[in-house]
Structure formats: C-alpha cells, structure tokens
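Weekly puzzle thread! Below is a chain. First person to post its structure in token form gets bragging rights.
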Amino acid sequence: MKQFSVFLPAKVGAMLDIVKLLSTHQTHVVALSLSESTDSAIARIICSDPQRVEKLFRENNVAFGVSQVVVVEMRKVATQLVKLLAAVVMGEINVHFAYPLLIRPRGFSAIDLHIDDTVCASSVLGGEGFKLLGQNVI
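Winning reply:
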C-alpha cells in the first residue's frame, strides 16, 4: 500500500485542511500518524484512493512523499502482535514505525508497518500465516 508523508506547517488547522481537501473529493484517510517538531509536523496517512490523493496534492501544492508500507490484518491483537514482531525479528526486518488503521477492514484490526524491505516482509509474514491487506480492501 502507499503511504503519504505530508509536511504540515506549524499552524492551527493544518491537518484539518488536508482532511477536508481529501473529503471534498470523496477520498478518506484510513490510517493516520502524526510526528511533531518545534515548527512543523509530518502526517503519515493511508487513503482510500492513493492515485486521486497524489493528483490532489500536486494540484494544491501540498508537500509530500510516497512510500510503500505493509498492512497486516490482526484477528487477535493480544496474541498476534507478539507473533508478528517475532516473525519480523526472525526475518531481520527493520520496522521504522507502525500505527493502526482507523477502519476495520474485513471486520478486523489492522496495523501499518513501514519497513526496510516490503517484499521480504510480505514473504516472511505471509509464511507465518498473516493476512496482508491490499489497497482493494480499504
């Protein structure tokens, strides 16, 4: 899945402006993580329609970057989180950050993992029985 990293200036309502822009074009934020510094913030978001988002950001001069992430379905979070992290360690895969989805695709929790190697992680996690979610699910 595509994750957008959006530069937000340190002003009240900056995140609201981004969400409103997307919402007015029938595109929804399905996962969100914010990292703040003194004079700015980075919003990491996964959206329902990444192609539209990329176009909207370019048309509206929104500073952003795009990266690939792995989204893993979590049927039993309490027990599966340990198994997921153990699989990542066994595969020697670096997790840079993780955050949950705001929606429950297929009725279950899901977690977004930003990692070094999405192909390797997909293989390792799939081999351990985890269900990886694609853009079509959200």
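Puzzle host: Confirmed. Bonus trivia for everyone else. The helical segments are 14-23, 50-59, 77-90, 118-127.
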